[in-house]
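[job 4471] stage=fold_predict status=RUNNING
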Amino acid sequence: MIKVISFIVMLLFLGCSYKINPNEFIPINAKKSKILPSNQEIYSKTQILITTPKKTPPNIQAKSAIESLLSSNNSVIILNRKFDSIENEIKLAEEAKKSKTNLNQANYILEVAITSNTTSTTYHPPVYWRDKKGKIHKTPAYYSHKACVGGYIKIIKIPEQITTTLPLYNCESENTQSRYYNFNYLINSAIKEAIFDKKDDLYEIFAKRGYVFEVRKKDNKTILHTTLGSEFGAKEGEVVNIYTLEVKKEPFSNKEKIIQKKIGEGVISDKIEPDSSWIIVKKAKEPIKIGDFVKINYHYSIFDKIKDIF
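[job 4471] inference complete, writing structure tokens
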């Protein structure tokens, strides 16, 4: 019943129209960001190299599960080659950036590992009970089998070596009449579910940036023309976060680092092309500049939530 109500609410949400006519909005002379994207950043997909520290069956299963999960993401390309070392991957990325060519370099190294694996079997004795007529009934004895796995997904951005670690944990169980049980199925199921639980996090990390190249206004309403098109997963009604990049000096040094800062939120309108879309700004903490960017917020994806219900 709860799922049905949730589905009805989502249908009502999808019924909301995000139709706009950009011609009714007036272009404004927005400032340019100090950090503008290159053509490669705008048009290329994110290239990911997936590896595992040891080729154990659980690790191989986890690697396969991530490859399957990310294969449906239009924003990424999974590289089909071996991982050498972080040092060599950094050199390759820097060489590709310098030559402005695709050398099959990784934008991210994704290391997955299953570090714990436990199984247990619990006996449940028969249960006797009497109905209203006094007749005695018996619920047969059974065994419950449980498998739990734990691990991590380490995501390293290349060449900056910015690292994000996502913990993995999940348990799966099944009841049988037999004490003897092959746990391989439950272990594999637990690994798959542990990986799937991180789908929103992974999709959000690897979400394609849609760079703002035009800002228009009408009364109190602002729309943004971005490079986020249907080719990279843009859909009407999807929620997006709006970001800007800032250069800040590190304390007690002359080194500078680039900071990504969220400055607002918006929603994708009905005006979508393969290589562009118009975004309706819902809120913004500061003026949006040319060169700022949007990313789909997969934690709020209405389309994925409908899939989860069914």
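[job 4471] summary: The chain has a mean pLDDT of 89.
[job 4471] exit 0
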